[in-house]
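Entry 12.
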Amino acid sequence: MSVLPDTVIGQIQFCEVHNPVWAGAPAAIGLTAGQVTALTAATVTARKSFNDAQSARALSKAATTRLGTDARVMRLQVSDLIRQIKAFAELQATPGTVYAAAQVPPPAAPTPAAAPGKPTDFAVSLEPDGSVTLTWGASDSAASLGAFFTISRKLPGQAMFSGIGGAPGSTAESRRATFTDSTVPATAASAGAQYIVQGFKGSRAGKVSDAVVVQFGVDGGGASIVEGGLKMAA
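Predicted 3D structure (tokens):
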């Protein structure tokens, strides 16, 4: 076990306590008066340096606090001035001249929001009135960001898909987009109706989904879906 404490302040305090004890009769403990005197002087110096360091830390902390406050005031002021420069520039015939004079970069051209990703992971359910409800997932499909979907259908005997409606994107309440086809004829039950879904944001179009085949009114009156060649029960 070490006699000296591990910390600097602990070591200083140890010396401050023992210096007068050792100075009383140094020869009795194998020391000289000069050794004890030198240690006492070193202890006084160390204590002063410790106190100076503590004061410096307190001053540094206060200075850092002042810096944070002053920098916030400066940032608010310069931000207001930059906004004023930008507003003034946009009222001019050549805004770039103002930005160049102020040495402030002009606003970057807005990047169009990405179109929704390819709809996948379809699910289907048959409603009591005979209509069919499709749900699916897609990336970047939040309705709050302007995402929406168009749904096209091809019935047995038809050569092409035709648009039958649209659906909003996903919401906080529903992470999946939903569309109910209330016009699908009962004659399409066994052969199945085919659907394709495509997402949009403004004029930006996403990838079209793979065609999915929905068979309904089979297997006990339920509905099933074939996506990518795989048939799944709803």
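Annotation: Strands lie at 120-126, 132-137, 147-154, 162-168, 177-181, 193-201, 204-208, 212-218, 222-227, 230-233. Residues 33-90 form the longest helix (58 residues).
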